[in-house]
């Protein structure tokens, strides 16, 4: 057997292990339950893509809460699997609505996701889906390859920030924007001068945050001060990200300074 045939055989074996007959039956059964709920349950039948959004967001945040609480061990299996199932239920409901409209079904969702993961991970998969004999251990190289494939898939996106959901919470939105800029090789200068106040104990320069707890306390205090001044910290940060996006150019630099963007 050739190396290429061998790697394809391994890929097929691993795929069978992940999506064998038993798993297929379980998934088909769940899809059937959702179909019957849409047909027989008035509450489920009345759902729309728009009305489902609040549940999708709620269930996603419950997964976040479960993970942050550390409830991912063996003793938490029922809780964690239940939360993941709630998110999966939302995905299946949206797919079912599209199937009823004659657009696509969960099968197309699965096929598209499988193809995307193969396409965007060329360090693992060959274009035909077979496993590569050798891969890379360099995360930066993997990141570059992922971004390059995304550019090919979405040529209409001209800015590194295109495609970031505008509805993200402000801190996450800012983090995503800065990460995209970093990955595009764009230097983002500070918007304000470093603090000049001396350290209250040593008299030297104020140190950077040493722990996530210190940073969290600082952010909490920023929100407190904003409220005391009648300002909305969430809206202010979101506006800063919008200004950042507007001023971002293709030169690889972003002029800024104490005056802000």
From TrEMBL:
GO molecular function: nucleoside triphosphate diphosphatase activity
Phylogenetic classification of the source organism: Bacteria, Bacillati, Actinomycetota, Actinomycetes, Micrococcales
Signal peptide segment: none
Annotated region described as Disordered, given as residue ranges: 186-212
Positions of the NTP pyrophosphohydrolase MazG-like domain: 48-125
Example of a GO biological process term: TTP catabolic process
Domain of life: Bacteria
Protein name: Nucleotide pyrophosphohydrolase
